[in-house]
Amino acid sequence: MTLNITSLSKKYNDFFAIDHVSLNISKPGIYGLLGTNGAGKTTLMGMILGLILPTKGMIKIFGEEFSHKRFDILKKLNYESPYLDLPKKLTVKQNLIFYSRMYGVKDFLEKIHDLSNNLKINDLLDRQFGSLSAGQKTRVGICKSLVNDPKILLLDEPTASLDPDTSIFIRNFLKKYQKLNKTIILIASHNMHEVEKICSRIIILNKGKIILEGIPKVILENKKLNNLEQLFLKLSN
Amino acid sequence: MFQRLYAMINRYVILVIGSGPRMMSIFYWPSIQIILWGFFSDFLLNNNLANSINSLSFLLSAIILWDVLFRAQLGLSMTFFEELWSRNLGHLLITPIKISEIILSLVITSFLRTSLGLIPAIFVANYYFELQFFQLGFYLAFFLLNLVFVGWSIGFVVSGLVLRYGQAFEELAWAFIFVLLPFSCVYYPLEALPDIFQIFALLLPPAHIFEGMRQIIDNGQVSVNQLMMSFLLNIFYFMLAVFMFKKMMNSCRKKGNLFNLGE
User: Fold this and answer.
1) Alpha carbon of B222 to those of B121, B136, B210, B212: distances in Å?
2) Domain spans of chain A?
């Protein structure tokens, strides 16, 4: 198993942010992690990345227990989120070089050049990160999250607050990138339309528990619903 | 490891060099301190208001040495705060960097910042105000290094508290060190303190360092025991501070607040 989560819980005082979640992801693909605000999506991602310590349970990545082989595993993981930022006073290129070095990327200038071409951010490389628009920052953030060719990429609401053009561009880019690199991409999102468009499987969280998991089309057929938005509203009520 | 360390230090250097106010703050305060107190010492000497040139040397040397401690602490805390202010710590901690590498990069950056600001100021003070600073000889390096370590220990404690309890604690970066000032015997000898405070002062490395400095300027004598004591206390406090910083980092992981730091 590439990502194997067993009975994972995170408890804050008396409240379970994640409640005995088990999850196996072994095949490359784009997976949608859905849920209302406070469902536990970001907490689950935080635990996979080691930013949040679980109260109970185990995370195995690439067959190794995360808590034992954390630093080796982190070399093959990456993450992008609107909740985190990059130093605003550094240029885009300086930020990308910094993170390439942190991951020990060889030939990082070439890598940055290729990625920035694909993400259409070449003209932003010499601009300070703080001067970019939300859409530009997202593209730079995604570029940062790909510098180490991650085997598992976690994206927390990658198109939140973006205009439709940029959202479509990001979605298409991610689909192409995933196909080419056989990456596991786990996307946490509220955007049902987006999830329907790009995710091969979905995992729905509610109050810290996985309440539904499967292929979107099959789930909709079984539940006799037209789209994920209807499903989402039904489940959250 | 070296590549990550280089990346961290290089980034801090770029951030400082790229910012006029940050660059200025490195040079500004040490220079202002030394110029201000240098002129004041000159005034006392020229008007026969000071007992001897030695007492003025005490004063100026003490000011410089105290500033070393203060700059080392600020250099470390401010460098760490940059990560919080830029909401970048989460990104940093999902890379394969170890806490020991973060600690080392903070220490090296603080050392560079402190040296950059103080070395020119020390030479200026020595030249213009006839300060007998270099008469401390080999012990000068020992005093400086020990004070830098005290600064780092405080820096790690303050950074850990800010990390754990939020940015309201940032004020501590400026204030914490002044709690130690009365017990550090910077401007007066140990015996000037009440007995009970003397005991407390002797548990802190700065009191030993400033006592040692006064002894050398006064009679050229050095108490090796005192120097050893300051060194051992420093090691103890530094290890304690690093332990506390790591604990706070872990506590943040448990509390799950590494995502919203800096907001």
Assistant:
1) 26, 10, 12, 6
2) 87-149
ipTM of this predicted complex? 0.89
d(CA B64, CA B35): 11
Q: What is the chain A residue with the closest CA to B11?
A: A98
A55-70 pLDDT, tens digit per residue, is 999 999 999 999 899 9
- Tell me what pLDDT residue B133 has: 65
Which residue shows structure tokens 């030993």?
B208
Min Cα distance B63 → chain A (Å) is 34
Nearest CB to B19: which of A86, A89, A104? Answer: A89
Least Cα separation, residue B127 to chain A (angstroms): 38
Which positions in chain A touch B15 (Cβ < 8 Å)? Answer: 87, 89-90
What is the phi/psi pair of residue B29, to 5°?
A: -65, -45
pTM given for the model: 0.87
pLDDT in tens, B84-106: 888 888 899 999 999 999 999 99
**Of A96, A172, A165, the residue nearest A133 (C-alpha):** A165
Q: Is the CB of A98 less than 8 angstroms away from the CB of B7?
A: yes
Please give the backbone phi and psi of residue A49, each rounded to the nearest 5 degrees, phi first: -90, -10
Residues of chain B contacting residue A90, judged by C-beta atoms under 8 Å apart:
11, 14-15, 18
Sequential DSSP letters for B24-42: HHHHHHHHHHHHHHHHHHH
Q: Residue A187 in contact with residue A5, Cβ under 8 Å?
A: no
User: What pLDDT digit, counting tens, does each position of A153-173 carry?
Assistant: 999 988 877 788 888 888 899
Measured between CA atoms, how close is B257 to chain A, in angstroms? 8
pLDDT digits (tens, 9 = 90+) for B199-213: 999 999 999 988 888
For chain A, the maximum distance between any two Cα atoms, rounded to a whole number of angstroms, is: 51
Q: Which residues of chain B have pLDDT under 50?
A: 263
Nearest to B94 among A49, A53, A86 (CB): A49
Judging contacts by C-beta atoms under 8 Å, the chain A residues touching residue B10 are 98
